[in-house]
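Provenance and format

Records in this collection were gathered into a single text stream. Each protein contributes a sequence line and a token line. The two records reproduced below are adjacent in the stream.
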Amino acid sequence: MYRNLLVPIDGSTLSEYSVPFAIEIARRARGRVHLLRALPESILTDIPVSLQASSRKLAQTHLEKLAAAYSTPDVPVTTDLRVGFPVEEILRASPKFDLVVMTTQGAGAISRWVLGSVTDKVIRMAPKPVLAIHPRPKATRAQAEATALRMFRDVCVPLDGSALSEKAIKELGQFEDGEATVHLVRVVARDAGTDALEMARDSLLDAASPVQARGVRVKSIVKQADNVAGAIADAAQKAGCGVIVMVTHGEGGPSRWLLGGVTDKVVRVGPLPVLVIRAGRPLWKDGKRPLTARR
């Protein structure tokens, strides 16, 4: 279960939209949340030395106020302010946590955190799962908390028939409760024949068995489409899902499910949160990606 959660923020309300999601996950797991903010060195070096200390103090004060607003006896919230490149600081911190929770957009007109930048790189490089959340501008805390609750009601798990893609099923325990429904989705080509459709349905029945054995409701969806990512997002939204759970790659090599492929596109399409699980992370020594591979 995800008990120790890392939430990177950049001081903007958009990046802080992820906090209620982390709090809800931690509350159910009796865990804790750790807020991390990294101040890029370039920001500090661009201002007079006399103001650098005050900038750090303002950032630290903001972190502490945010932590105080969300911390409860059941879910303690701690903070960490660092100076350095956000991606590298997040990656350095992530091995100590079970899950990274962050939004796909943060501060800036053309955000530093827009996919293709910080969040995108963390998803690609972090040794732990990443829950990527599309922030809703001007959303209130109550609205964010209500959206977070939906993750535990209906969960979408896209599968491609491979053992690796079905690894996502093993991560469902965190989201299963007495009211949860798991929606298994398989997308086949628009011109797929009867045999291919039947094989897809059979594969979903097989995948559903261990989930149903845990007493969880399962619904299977087979869609015909050439745009796999779009079909997955559409199926999840129509089913009223609150989260999509995917691995970073599935069948084939170099696989149509590699980041930059289907999983990447589903994260980008939105608007649902996507839990991204790296299928290859057990191959890293001590669960850590080599530093040379991060740059």
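Adjacent record:
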Amino acid sequence: MYLQQVEYFLAVVDNDGLNAAATSLGVAQPTVSQAIRGLERELDVELFHRIGRGMVLTSAGHALVGPARRMLRTVVTAEGSLADSSGKPRGRLDIRALAALSVEPVATLVSSFRQRFPGISVRIGTLHDEASAPSLVRDGHCELVVSHLPVLDSADLTVDELGVQDWWLVCPPGSDVPPDDPLPLSALPDVPHVVVPRGGSHAGHIESAIARAGGALRPAVIIQHREARCPLVFNGVGATFLERSMAEDAARRGAVVRQTEPSLSRAYGLVYEPSGLSPAGRAFVELARETAPL
């Protein structure tokens, strides 16, 4: 079994097929297909059911996923154990982060980290479900997870609280909004809203807080693409709740912005397994603790 075969196998698993896996790896599709076939011959098992053009894991394939991820994680950790010519860590750091945290604090942290450790490349994947954070770390998908807190089922892991994320109300320029700032949730203007689908932790948190204040959001647009919320607001489609840094930027561009009372906020932090951290991972944790606003 070759490491490249394992990498290609996981690429097919993570990208739901050969074509997408080949694209993510930057190789031709037949190259990935041959590697998978070779791995199956060596292991003498079928790892995927071929259904039309689709690839579905067999029971043997499912059994291999966890060990394969741990194998690659061990290699990444080993590569990162060697310092560069200046004595700083090098290698790759894999992080999963909630989309709601990707602008702030993740972008700021990664920027500072790369300035301090230019020899480390950072790969950031999306954390779709907070409940999966512990298993992503345990199964070797990543070294670190940036998530809202608390994180359930994490007794065997370390959770470092780093700060609190706030959401502010952002309305189209010229909107008739009460002058109060912060604005009581009970006094929210009855305007349509641009919202992300229910199920996300921050979306549910905001809806619950407004409901407790006796109100309700009236969706005008439900959108998966979070980055489109601001353009929709500026085009007059409706109001939305944005992370503080994005709301402050929207205010500078002319949007009507209000904080709320009570505030809409949640703590966030890092989830990791200390003994499994590479030098790059340890350096990131130290930087995050050093710069945490708490």
